[in-house]
Write a structure and sequence with these properties.
114 residues; alpha+beta; Heat Shock Protein 90; 4-stranded antiparallel beta sheet; 3 helices
């Protein structure tokens, strides 16, 4: 939220960025680190005119398959919507893992308030 407060960004885009990041970080904690809250998650960002690029990285368990951005068939289940939410919040989402480092790259093209 701190970064968003310094950007000339519409509220809807700001809320989308926050929601997508919260979901991505929750995924790191729950899946990569198996609910170990003391592990490190690194967040880097770069702002270029009307684009924000965010990288969330961890050294946890690597995903075995590509992210599925589809909404799950069973909407009543408590899990399975994370990638759908992340994909809906960002314009570009890429995941890669190499040498024990997992990196989720997120890109949002945002509209300015003015």
């Amino acid at each position: 939220r701190g970064v968003n407060s310094h950007l000339d960004i519409q509220r809807e885009d700001s809320e989308s960025i926050v929601l997508g990041m919260v979901e991505a970080i929750n995924n790191c904690i729950e899946h990569a680190y198996q609910n170990k809250y003391s592990e490190e998650i690194k967040i880097d960002y770069r702002i270029e005119s009307d684009v924000i690029n965010i990288e969330i990285s961890d050294h946890g368990i690597t995903m075995e398959k590509e992210p599925n951005f589809d909404l799950p068939d069973d909407l009543e289940t408590e899990s399975g919507r994370g990638w759908f939410i992340i994909g809906a919040c960002f314009d570009k989402v890429e995941y890669q893992s190499e040498n024990g480092l997992n990196v989720l790259a997120l890109q949002k093209i945002y509209n300015s308030q003015t």
